[in-house]
Specification:
This protein is of the alpha+beta class. The chain has a domain at 96-167: Sporulation related repeat (Alpha-Beta Plaits, 2-Layer Sandwich), CATH 3.30.70.1070. Helices cover 36% and strands 21% of the residues. It has helices at 2-20, 71-86, 104-117, 142-152, and strands at residues 90-101, 123-128, 131-139, 160-167. The longest helix is centred in the N-terminal third of the chain and has 19 residues, at 2-20. It is flat, with a radius of gyration of 38 Å.
Length: 169
């Protein structure tokens, strides 16, 4: 133990002595560096004409007629897009679930409370045996869900946002 303690003490003294020894500082500030980089700089084209400041439109002496009309092609694409959109029956969105349980009286009480807190937002009771779920709103944006959830949290501390398909009429 005595040899081990003296060995550690010797190492510590060595580290302290080495740390206190001044070293010769090398300074690069005294050396100056210069290099000519002008050959790599881009050249600026000054052959363009400056347009008068007072005119906002370009004046020409020729009348230009369009060479191609894209109206017909654009109308076809828009019609195709409208037909495809008719086939879409739902969008993915969100709803806020304020109650989930097996008691119908508690579910309808939660629905009534949610309607008092937010009368302008639709509140539904869903029943899939044996569970009642009370869901508030149909949202497409997550930010809207968070705002509404903050309004419901004082009355429904266990309320959560859930993904839901929103059917389009």
């Amino acid at each position: 133990m005595n040899k081990f303690g003296s060995g550690i003490a010797f190492l510590l003294v060595g580290f302290i002595v080495m740390g206190c020894v001044t070293t010769q500082s090398t300074s690069t500030a005294s050396k100056s560096y210069s290099e000519d980089l002008s050959q790599y700089r881009p050249e600026v084209d000054t052959s363009y004409k400056i347009v008068e400041e007072n005119s906002s439109f370009r004046t020409t002496s020729e009348n230009f007629e369009p060479e191609a009309d894209v109206t017909e092609l654009l109308n076809k694409k828009l019609d195709t897009l409208a037909e495809n959109n008719k086939e879409i029956r739902y969008v993915n969105g969100y709803s806020i679930q304020v109650y989930s349980g097996s008691s119908s009286s508690e579910a309808y009480a939660a629905r009534d409370t949610a309607r008092v807190v937010l009368p302008e937002i639709r509140t539904d009771v869903e029943y899939k045996q044996p569970i009642y779920k009370v869901r508030v709103g149909r949202f497409t944006e997550r930010l809207e869900v968070q705002r509404t959830l903050l309004q419901l949290k004082p009355k429904f501390p266990d309320a959560i946002s859930v993904p839901q398909r929103i059917y389009i009429n």
